Amino acid sequence: MKMFTATKTTKQESLISMFRGNILVRQSLVFATLAIALLSGCASGPHYREANKSGALDPHSGNGMVLIYWLPGFVGSANPGTSLLVNNTPLPRLVPRGGFYSYEAAPGPLHIAFPGLEYNPTAGDNARAFATGGLVGVAMENSAHIKGFSVDTSVVPNQTNYIQLGFGKLKEVSKEQGEREVQKCRWINAPKQ
Predict the structure, then answer these.
(1) Where would I find the beta strands (DSSP E) of the chain?
(2) Above pLDDT 90, what percent of the chain?
(3) Which residues pair with 155 in a beta bridge?
(4) The pTM is what?
(5) Are 121 and 140 within 8 A, CB to CB?
(6) I need a surface site. Which of 113, 129, 146, 173 has the fewest CB within 10 A?
(7) CA–CA distances in Å: residue 159 to residues 2, 21, 106
């Protein structure tokens, strides 16, 4: 009888041991998946300091440079990036957290926006909004161009403008703030070497 009990206890211990092993495997898989998700959203490319020292970020004669950057951080780091429009033309790359995009432009106005968040309501849109929501509906219909969903800047020859990207907002910052913050970022559209 004691022999049977010992065997039964051994089976229980082996089941418990197997269960603990499965938990460790599951935890390892969860951590590996999280690590991959976090790293996939990270920006790659040379750091701003390296690129700036080399002169690669200097605009060509007569043009200006616009640096659009998203500060690094943990929240949203699994996001592969944000698409943007410059003068209604999509940038060819997503701007990820911890990255900056350089955009050389001729002098003049430049409009940067999130795609799909801007539109100008027509009289018919306003009439429908009034019919369904009264004055509140019209106000909501006309608030599609909310401050922060786009930014207008003026490109000046041989000067760099800094546009900070965040969750659902864009804002132009001073040269001092932009130079300080972009130091933490990587150049995502650096020329291939």
Answers:
(1) 64-70, 85-86, 89-90, 99-105, 108-113, 150-155, 160-166, 169-173, 186-187
(2) 35
(3) 108
(4) 0.64
(5) no
(6) 146
(7) 88, 60, 11
Q: Which tens digits make up the pLDDT trace of 64-122?
A: 999 999 998 765 455 567 889 999 899 988 888 899 999 999 999 999 998 865 555 56
Length of the chain: 193
The amino acid present at 190, given as its one-letter code, is: A
* pLDDT value for 169: 86
Q: How far is 68 from 121, CA to CA, in rounded Å?
A: 28
Given a cut of 60, whether residue 138 has pLDDT beyond it is no
The residue with greater pLDDT, 75 or 40, is 75
Structure tokens at 192: 């291939």
DSSP β-bridge partners for residue 161: 66
DSSP per residue over 18-50, as a string?
A: HHHHHHHHHHHHHHHHHHHHHHHTS--S-BHHH
Give the separation between CA 87 and CA 137, rounded to whole angstroms: 29
- ∠ Cα 172 103 90 (to 5°): 90
